[in-house]
Amino acid sequence: QVQLVESGGGLVQAGGSLRLSCVASTSIFNINLMGWYRQAPGNQRELVATITSGGRTNYADSVKGRFTISRDNAKKTVYLQMNSLKPEDTAVYYCRAAIPILGDHWGQGTQVTVSS
After folding, report:
1. Region at 8 (left for phi over 0; alpha for psi -120 to 50; beta for the rest)
2. For position 82, what pLDDT does the model report?
3. 100-107, long-range: CB within 8 Å, 24+ apart, which pairs?
């Protein structure tokens, strides 16, 4: 099993920035796909951004140009830099690691609240 621990959430005003971190309990070097997802109250969990082991990234249209996903294999960490935050970005943000054979692993989530 791989444990994922998110941090960096909080309360921020619209237009502000936050950086989320997801630290894995084991090396992420061979984990091909890692990503960030979010779930707002009453909504389904949705993709925010993903990154492959080769550094290829994918973003939801709603966050393109504002959010940046990155990974530091040496630190076993995936980051999500969030700029120009909007109230509609308010949600619990989850880290996901897609591991061959072992399947999907999720963190416990971190709350992001953007006030208008």
Report:
1. left
2. 98
3. 100/32, 102/1, 102/2, 105/1, 105/2, 105/3, 105/4, 106/4, 107/3, 107/4, 107/5, 107/6, 107/22
Decide: residue 17, CB within 10 A, 0-12 exposed, 13-18 middle, 19+ buried.
exposed
CA distances from 4 to 35, 51, 71, 116 (A): 11, 16, 14, 30
pLDDT digits (tens, 9 = 90+) for 48-75: 999 999 999 999 999 999 999 999 999 9
Helix or strand holding residue 31 (H, E) = none
How far apart are alpha carbons 16 and 97 in whole angstroms?
A: 27
Residue 43 — φ and ψ, nearest 5°? -115, 160
The full length of the chain comes to 116
> Could you tell me what percent of the chain has a pLDDT over 70?
100
The SS3 assignment for 88 reads helix
Which single residue is written with the structure tokens 């399947």? 103
